[in-house]
Amino acid sequence: MSDYLKARLPRGLVDRTPAELKATEAMIETIRHTYEIYGFEPVETPLIEYTDALGKFLPDQDRPNEGVFSFQDDDEQWLSLRYDLTAPLARFYAENHEKLPKPYRSYRNGWVFRNEKPGPGRFRQFMQFDADTVGAPSVAADAEICMMMADSMEALGLKGQFVVRVNNRKVLDGVMEVIGLAGDDKAGTRLTVLRAIDKLDKIGPSGVRDLLGAGRWENPEEKSGDFTKGAGLPPEAADVVLAFVASGANSAAETVANLGKLVTGSVRGSEGVEELKLIASLVDAAGYADRVKIDPSVVRGLEYYTGPVFEAELTFEVTGDDGRPVRFGSVGGGGRYDGLVGRFLKEPVPATGFSIGVSRLMAALRTLGKVGVEKVNGPVCVLVMDKTPEALAGYQKMVAELRAAGIAAEMYLGASGMKAQMKYADRRNAPCVIIEGSNEREAGIVQIKDLALGKELSAGISDNAEWRASRPAQKEVARADLIAEVRTIVEAAGGAA
After folding, report:
1. Residue 49 banded pLDDT, cuts 50, 70, 90
2. Is-annotated flag, keyword Protein biosynthesis (predicted)?
3. pTM to 2 decimals?
4. Is 211 assigned a ligand-binding role in the annotation?
């Protein structure tokens, strides 16, 4: 039996390297700058909330709903790790609304947690970056957030490779009224219809028609594989739903007109059409009509939202699991959720927001070569050639001088010799190492080895004797010139100095 603990990462979680952290920080800073230009301000809420504040409820006495990680405190209150950033914002606003400006515009980024079965691209811990406006009843707030998303995508270098698609829950509610699916007793059938529409890109209109009707086989031609039960709509009702998702036209005006015809007679549906018309007008006036488009096929969480919904979709192609080209797809979305904040207060509170999937957006930027996966430059390493107190004090003084000059530096603190120290510096991706033995100390000089340049030069040297004779990228400088020489090397390597 082993006498040591096996190191293992829990499923659905990932470790992140310094390069990944640096790239993510740079991306988040770009998005943050855009949000602040629009007048949004940061706020941070805890990772843990009371379970009922998150909108989840206990199915029994022992454990809360699946989907959240939960535990009980000393008072037997159920607490949960947050599964998104919107519910905690609703709680924060309700507790502090009397002293907050109204409307309240805020952004947040942080980790969220889902107690779900992990799989490819599906994690139990992942990062989101949200922006929300609370207390603004006009869909002008929705239009603004859509334009802000467009600006964020462009700031990240994605100009011409994305579209922000906009739909409205009220319009779909109007369609449901027209085909006889209004009312709480039809909620299950409505959800089946939504799921069918959401698969339009994967299975096409004929596949969606099957799911709106009796159902669909995984392999329709052979009628084999898994069978998904359909919504059971009659053909004429299915025609209306398919007409709804196909009503997108070349212009927003045409699309809105098509939707208006479909929901004739529905007050709620007509209200939704007018809201889309206003959003299109504002977007066009601001010069965003080529990037923010009315698209009836967006059904993102429509059962959760109360009005406009939107989705940022990247339009460039990647290779799918089957080897065929497919669009990269959504990297974020959101919409109007007028009922969430009001759960905590006596009056309804309008709200709208957008959430970016940080990891997915970072994957997209990597795919396009917008961010690299190269190593992050480490600190300058001062090697320890002599372990006498006098020598160690000298090495420590060098490090202190470098740090005071704004150059990241460290003295080697291990117990190994020269060869291992050089290997350590290489693994740290140090731009250079500083070498001072007793002879150098007496002469008032140091040896500086430029590791990045050394790697480049060594590519053309194959003979060990030649290597030892040439000592590429190593120079001898006066101790007094240490800072200036190191700064030149660090700046050439792309590091901060």
Report:
1. very high
2. yes
3. 0.81
4. no
